């Protein structure tokens, strides 16, 4: 049984999905802008919701830091840029692939 964890590297704007210590997938992400930076630290996935509405695209993975999450986007041009209010944005097809793999309580490390 896989032991998934997520590492978000803010400096290279990538999300890495690991099984144990091996990177099995990587995805480009959009991150928080200067005034609303994405927080760094250790979190967990606390909820999952398909089609959350609004600007959150196809899926929402809520983090243990309230009001922050990993989600899809209606603006694919924002991926790879500093544009959000602190959340981690992914292409819709990428967030759907990630959500299908990771269970609740998956560890998420966000590093600078």
From TrEMBL:
It comes from the Bacteria. Pathway: Cell wall biogenesis; peptidoglycan biosynthesis. SUPFAM superfamilies: L,D-transpeptidase catalytic domain-like. The active site is at residues 71, 87. InterPro entries: LD-transpeptidase (IPR050979), LD_TPept_cat_dom (IPR005490), Transpep_catalytic_dom (IPR038063). One of its GO terms (molecular function) is peptidoglycan L,D-transpeptidase activity. One of its GO terms (cellular component) is extracellular region. This is L,D-TPase catalytic domain-containing protein. The lineage of its organism: Bacteria, Bacillati, Bacillota, Bacilli, Bacillales.
């Amino acid at each position: 049984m896989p032991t998934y964890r997520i590492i978000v590297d803010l400096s290279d704007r990538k999300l890495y999905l690991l099984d144990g210590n091996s990177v099995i997938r990587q995805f480009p992400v959009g991150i928080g802008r200067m005034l609303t930076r994405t927080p760094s630290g250790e979190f967990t996935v606390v909820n999952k919701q398909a089609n959350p509405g609004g600007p959150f695209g196809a899926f929402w993975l809520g983090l243990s830091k309230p009001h922050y999450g990993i989600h899809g986007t209606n603006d694919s041009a924002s991926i790879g840029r500093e544009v959000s209010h602190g959340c981690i944005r992914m292409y819709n097809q990428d967030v759907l692939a990630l959500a299908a793999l990771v269970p609740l309580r998956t560890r998420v490390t966000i590093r600078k």
